[in-house]
């Protein structure tokens, strides 16, 4: 299993500002995933963060809006840029245990944009 | 359109009642997982089903994978307040990405 810590756990932000969410894993992992969970919606994959290369973004998500860093095998950041109220959501960091075939999630970062 | 449809979306019941949550799709999945998410936490895996018709039990929770591997159900017997949470089904498509597709979830509240 993996223990994942996210910061901040919640924040209230002003429209037009940017916020960076940090994700720390207690073990080295090849891929880290960033999800968005909007009220009443399913978990939606934003991007896959690979160490040493650019993140791979899913349809509907772009690097300019959600820049991602992956400086090493235990850490990643997701920035939500130029925020609008529509970006209000829970953002979740996740890693996969390939052997178990299971995703482990951080506790999430709840963003409210005013 | 949602690949995985979960129903009901909300469920509010009294302690001791039984309930069933459904996860349906027109697509075939190589495996299907159920996660539970409590407020302020990330989802935690409950079970993975991989064989059509498979039934798995986890204490008072019974999970079933449809024969055609397009649907699944979660049945909770004698629900307790500790069962309160968001239940998410997630499917891995045959020949598709290793990243699961999630349903919208069923929000369950069990009142004491």
Structure characterization notes:
The complex is a heterodimer of chains A (114) and B (112). Chain A has 114 residues and is mostly beta strands. In chain A, 0% of the residues lie in helices and 54% in strands. In chain A, strands 2, 4, 5, 6, 9, 10 and 11 form a 7-stranded mixed β-sheet that branches. Chain A has a 4-stranded antiparallel β-sheet with strand order 1-3-8-7, with no helix packed on it. Chain A is globular and about 40 Å long. By secondary structure, chain B is mainly β. In chain B, 0% of the residues lie in helices and 54% in strands. Chain B has no helices and 11 strands. Chain B has strands at residues 5-7, 10-14, 19-24, 29-37, 44-49, 55-58, 61-65, 71-76, 85-93, 101-102, 106-111. In chain B, the strands form 2 sheets. In chain B, strands 2, 4, 5, 9, 10 and 11 form a 6-stranded mixed β-sheet that branches. Chain B has a 5-stranded antiparallel β-sheet with strand order 1-3-8-7-6, with no helix packed on it. Classes of the chains: A mainly beta (114), B mainly beta (112). Chains A and B meet through strand 5, strand 9 and strand 10 of A and strand 4, strand 5 and strand 10 of B.
